[in-house]
Amino acid sequence: MNLKRTFGTILTILGVVGLIYAAIGFVQESGSWRELAVYGVLGIIFFSTGIGLIRSTSDVAKM
What keyword terms does UniProt attach to this protein (predicted)? Predict the structure, then answer.
């Protein structure tokens, strides 16, 4: 099991959750704009880092 790919998947999922939380909060106007901005920025950072890790990790079959 490739640890970098697993960690990239976890970061990507956390990023998506952060972006969805920020979007729902923005639509419902349930939080302050600073709080929603922090969730949105962290979501973008986690998502882009996770996608980058998944893309840069090559699949090598070991025999």
Answer: Membrane, Transmembrane, Transmembrane helix
